[in-house]
Amino acid sequence: MKRFLLFLLLGPAVGFAVFELREIASGRIIGGFPGFIMGLPFAYWFGLIPSLVMWLEDWFLEDKMRLWPKVLTSALTGYVVSIGMMLIWTSVSIPLRQILTFGIVGAVQGLVCSWLSGIKPKGGAL
């Protein structure tokens, strides 16, 4: 249940933060602070399916891999899924460089969520 909630609730927020950092780094700030606040619901709307795919992959590999290989596969899955979703949702042609850099959004999202879901409590703590 912890894994599902991490990917579902935290995943799109992390992805949106990385997306905004990517936009700021490229000099494209749309709407300032109000645009940031208004963009957050859209991040959850468009980030839901990629988050569920990353959660499913992470859940499937939970007992088959150690933590860091699983985290890296989740980052790779997030990279591919976010590019796929962007290509599905957009109706305009996008330069290849923008497509490839957009994958970083899903990669960081998958990496963070997979890493947090793999942390086990120390000792006998619940």
From TrEMBL:
Membrane-spanning ranges: 33-55, 67-92, 98-119
Keyword Transmembrane: yes
Entry keywords, A to Z: Membrane, Transmembrane, Transmembrane helix
Protein name, UniProt field: DUF5413 family protein
Source organism of this protein record: Tardiphaga robiniae
